[in-house]
Amino acid sequence: DSGVTQTPKHLITATGQRVTLRCSPRSGDLSVYWYQQSLDQGLQFLIQYYNGEERAKGNILERFSAQQFPDLHSELNLSSLELGDSALYFCASSVGGRDTQYFGPGTRLTVL
Amino acid sequence: AQTVTQSQPEMSVQEAETVTLSCTYDTSESDYYLFWYKQPPSRQMILVIRQEAYKQQNATENRFSVNFQKAAKSFSLKISDSQLGDAAMYFCAYRTPNSGNTPLVFGKGTRLSVIA
């Protein structure tokens, strides 16, 4: 158990819908990262927050957004869902930018 | 942009034997970190081992060790005394510790099978 929690574990929804994925980092970690793992694209970085502020953006679509709250948990919002958004979404956390990232168990999103 | 290449999509090893997974990376940075993560069928991403580029000594964690060749930009993972529980996808990852931009860049992964 890495200490990073993610909810829900599984999510099944329809095209065009909007979902919210939630992540709670390890105690003491200030940085949260979101990654997407799909069969064709592999593991890709989406976005990073540090202590409530956005720090880096990767290949995140405009339909996707995220935020980190004062209690340091983070939410990833996915809207206007398409079939291609079906993937495993990981959250990872670290103490700071130079530290090892520990991953949560992931949320498996299926868009039908 | 940094890239990570794992040239072996699949590998297999007999139980109790040793196997080496390859990883190469491309970067112009001198300070960076390299990682191996394991993803078993449960899909959890588990850190196996970490190497700081400024350290010449190869990292070791129990049965797992790396061969870090900085000049060649090579970072292979050796698993000794392979066990059935080692069967998983293994991902090599790179990160540069620049402030404000420290995501992991992953290779495509190597699927390791362990034969009893």
What does this structure look like?
- The complex is a heterodimer of chains A (112) and B (116).
- By secondary structure, chain A is mainly β.
- Chain A contains no helices and 11 strands.
- In chain A, strands 2, 4, 5, 6, 9, 10 and 11 form a 7-stranded mixed sheet that branches.
- In chain A, a hairpin with a 5-residue loop joins β7 and β8 (74-78).
- The radius of gyration of chain A is 13 Å and the shape is globular.
- The model of chain A has no long low-confidence stretch (mean pLDDT 93).
- With 116 residues, chain B is mostly beta strands.
- In chain B, 0% of the residues lie in helices and 50% in strands.
- Chain B has no helices and 12 strands.
- In chain B, strands 2, 5, 6, 10, 11 and 12 form a 6-stranded mixed sheet that branches. In chain B, strands 3-9-8-7 form a 4-stranded antiparallel sheet, with no helix packed on it.
- Chain B is globular and about 45 Å long.
- Chain B starts with a strand and ends with a strand.
- The model of chain B has no long low-confidence stretch (mean pLDDT 93).
- The interface between A and B is medium-sized, with 26 and 25 residues.
